[in-house]
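Throughout our pipeline, every protein is held as a single compact record rather than as scattered files. The remainder of this section carries one protein's record, kept here as part of the documentation.

===
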Amino acid sequence: MRVLVVEDEQLLADAVATGLRREAMAVDVVYDGAAALERIAVNDYDVVVLDRDLPLVHGDDVCRKIVELGIPTRVLMLTASGDVSDRVEGLEIGADDYLPKPFAFSELIARVRALGRRTTVALPPVLERSGIKLDPNRREVFRDGKEIQLAPKEFAVLEVLMRSEGAVVSAEQLLEKAWDENTDPFTNVVRVTVMTLRRKLGEPAVIVTVPGSGYRI
C-alpha cells in the first residue's frame, strides 16, 4: 500500500510516516498543501493522510482536487478540532474518513488499512493463496501452517502479489506500491527482494517470474 502523509507539523508527520513504514507501507511525506498537489499529480496513492489546516493550499482544497480528478485515492482527514460540524464538513467535501487529534496510532493504522482496502476490489481481511496465508493487520505470514518472518519490504511485496489474485505484477508496479518516491527506479531492489522472499517462503517456489512482464503467485 502506498500512502501520502500531508501534515505541516513536521515531527508529527515524520512520526506517522515512520510508524506506517513499520507496517510495511510505502510512505511519502510533504508538509504543505501545494506540495501535496504536486505529489498527487505524479504518483498513485492508495490513501492520503491529510491534515486539514495546511499552509499554502488548505487541506479542504487538496481534498476537493482529489475528488475533482476522479482518482480512487482515499482521504483520511486529520484535524485538531473535534467539533462535530467540522467532521461533517470535511466528509461533505469528499474526505472518506475523519480522525481528530490527538489520536491513538493503532487507530490511525486501522483506518488507513480499511481505506486502502476500498481502493481495490474487496478482498477478505486475511489473504490466502497457494498455501500462503497473509494477515495484513497482524503482519503475519504462514505457509502450510508454519509462520514465516519477513522484513517490511518483503511483506509489502508479498501483499501486493497476493492482492493481484494471480495476475502478473510488473517490477514497476511493485516499485510503485512497496517503495516511496526516493527509491531509484533503476535499482535492482525489486529483483533482490523477490529473490529473498522466494528463499524465505521455501520450496516449491510459489512466486513465478513471467519473462518480460513481472511476477505472479
